[in-house]
Amino acid sequence: MSMASPSIPLAGKQRKLTVLVALPALLAAALTISGLLQLLPLGLWWNAVASTDLNNPQQLLFRYAALPRLFIAPLVGAALGLTGVLLQQILRNPLAEPTTIGTNAGASLAITVATLYAPSMLDGGRVWVALLGGAVTTAIVFMTARGRAFSPVAVIMSGLIVSLTCSSAGALLMALNHEYSEELFIWQSGSLIQNGDADVISLIPWLAVSLVAASAMLRPLILLELGSESVQSLGSRPALIRMAGLGVAIVLSSVVVAYVGVISFVALAAPALVHLLGARSLRKRLIWAPLTGASLLWLTDRLVQIAPFPSEVPTGTATALLGAPLLLFLLARLRTIPSPAQSADASVRRGTWKHICIGIAVLVGTLLIALAFGRGIGGWHWIFSAELLELRAPRVFTALGCGIMLALAGTLMQRMTGNPMAAPEVLGISGGATIGVLALMLFTGGIDHIAMLAAALAGSFAALVTLLAVGRRNHFSSDQLLLAGVSLTTIASTFSALFIASGDQRVEYLLAWMAGSTYRATWPDAITAVTTALLLLGVLPLTARWLDILPLGETSTRALGVTLKRTRLILMLLIAIPTGVATLLIGPLSFVGLMAPHLARTLGFQRALPQLLASALTGGFILLAADWLGRTVIFPWQVPAGLLAAFIGGPYFMIRRWAKSE
User: Fold this and answer.
1) What are phi and psi of 334, to 5 degrees?
2) Spatial separation of the C-alpha atoms in residues 596 and 184, rounded to whole Å
3) Angstrom distance (rounded) from CA 85 to CA 90
């Protein structure tokens, strides 16, 4: 996988790179001086640094907040720029960075766990906690991707699954410790607010050592461009070179997370921009990417400080909001190969209609248990009280309908793209629905469910249009669609952080919704979920022929008379509608669309129509069971059903992909 770029004369390259670094730096410097002058007159700057008057609030803010923040922004930007260059060179992947390979997610989760349950570990050991988490998740990503020879898409997709799993685990912990949820959410979004210069002083040696190590590895890293066999013939060990480079990148990115949280996409943007503007050699990228990262993050941090919001937007949120569209732009420049056709394993047992009938019976039994069996103050009990059923039934039927919708959407996506890792969360449809709902909430007051439903559907269709625009140039390549979904999901996450930072009174509602909770479900919600699921079940049998043919590959599909673009458009519409409805009703965080089709295939349902039915039964069962468990497992508290399903689903798929690579 490579990225095409135009040829630029040498003098023009140098000039463009200089402008890329200098222009944001000059703008940031002007904004910085203006901000410092508003805080303290110029004549008092040296006094504030040399002998701070502890009784003067302006001097205290200048010395212990403004100045450290002035230095932390370019230091973090340089660190991330260096990290991105190393990862992209080692993996030969222009999309590699700590966010897309799972390092940031692991480091962030480790800090969250330590903050909630072992705060003493953070006293002098914050960096080591983050480093352990980042190293573990990065190792998991590479173990799950080795079955496909560490191809760029395999690494990115494995990183996505690990990141989603860590995100669901972190959200689950925040749901169980809701009194800290808002603060943890904002910290995870990346904040450069400082309270002293300890972080600046600590970060400088980490960055200096990493720069020296990268310089020392320059020649071995350049050799990797020749390929593993050529490197071995020259007497070097490519695996050792990669491990050393990865070690530097993981350490540096984990250190950044430990000090300021997750700052997304700077490590992607800085190397990509300098490459596009002419820095072709690794030596030049190692010089210009850290400078560009420092300049861009400094400017971004100054802009968020003057943005007209009630509270400050986390800098990490702003960088992700700018970086995710850049990822979409880069995807359009990637050269990909067609996705291989998938063939069914003849040795796998076949599911029958008898098994479908058994599945229906199991689902009905689960539905009865969810309605009538539970845990109360007096312990476990059966109860058929009309009042209690009136409380339970809406959430139970909402969970059932949403589980069926997400399972069907996931099945459609996996068969349409020929990729078994496709799901509404992965393709960005859930993220599009989330963006629509959050945009509505940002510009309106109150909570209007009808308007939110319309916004969710609009967001889903907007995500669909974006995917069509990105995929058109490569004939709707599966890889293009899936990687575009990564950026859409990231944009949705940044919108969430933006809303939380706005100080809106509906933040508690938003956090519960994003966790996948059904305890606010009403009868209209239940009717909407069940009706949409039944309509979808009625329409999808008409698409069975397409779904049987599409996994054979594009050549075979065209030979059998199927018009690919029209077929994919219809299927994506059938994906967007139920995903938008389900996202509105239970939130965006769930692995049901990923788990249900896999489980149906494991049970032997290979043909399209039986797999659709089996997936629907499986998806309904998963979300029903998750809702029931979340309601009873830690009674009287509740665990959101979407979080519980996602927390179980992530490890399931990591283990499955790892087993396949053996």
Assistant:
1) -75, 140
2) 31
3) 9
Give yes or no for a contact between 259 and 73, defined as CB atoms under 8 angstroms apart: no
Of the CATH numbers 3.20.20.70, 3.40.50.1000, 1.10.10.60, 1.10.3470.10, which one belongs to the domain with range 10-333? 1.10.3470.10
Question: Which residues does 209 contact at the CB level (< 8 Å), separation at least 6?
Answer: none
- Give the span between the Cα atoms of 89 and 330, in whole angstroms: 16
Residues of the chain under the 70 pLDDT cut: 1-12, 147-154, 157, 175-176, 178-188, 228, 231, 235, 308-313, 317, 320-351, 387-388, 419, 421, 426, 468, 470-483, 486, 497-498, 500-503, 515, 589-590, 649-662
According to DSSP, residue 40 is labeled S
Architecture in CATH for domain 369-661: Orthogonal Bundle (1.10)
Query: Matching CATH topology for 10-333 and 369-661?
Result: yes
Helix axes 386-417, 353-372, angle to 10 degrees: 140
Place of tokens 């009873």: 632
> In terms of Cα–Cα distance, which of 220, 222, 219 is closest to 237?
220
Alpha-carbon gap, residue 194 to 71, rounded angstroms: 10
Could you read off the pLDDT of 107-137 as tens digits, one per residue?
A: 888 988 888 888 888 887 888 999 999 999 8
Give the C-alpha distances (Å, rounded to integers) separating 239 from 107, 246, 247, 581: 24, 10, 12, 47
**Sequence spans of domains, the chain:** 10-333, 369-661
CA nearest neighbour of 459 among 480, 482, 430: 430
Q: What are phi and psi of 3, to 5 degrees?
A: -125, 120
Task: Give the per-residue SS3 of 338-388.
Answer: CCCCCCCCCCCCCCCHHHHHHHHHHHHHHHHHHHHEEEECCEEEECCCHHH
CA atoms within 13 A on the CB side of 256: 33
Of the candidates 330, 511, 493, which has an alpha carbon nearest to the alpha carbon of residue 425? 493
Global model pTM greater than 0.70: yes
Radius of gyration of the chain (CA): 26
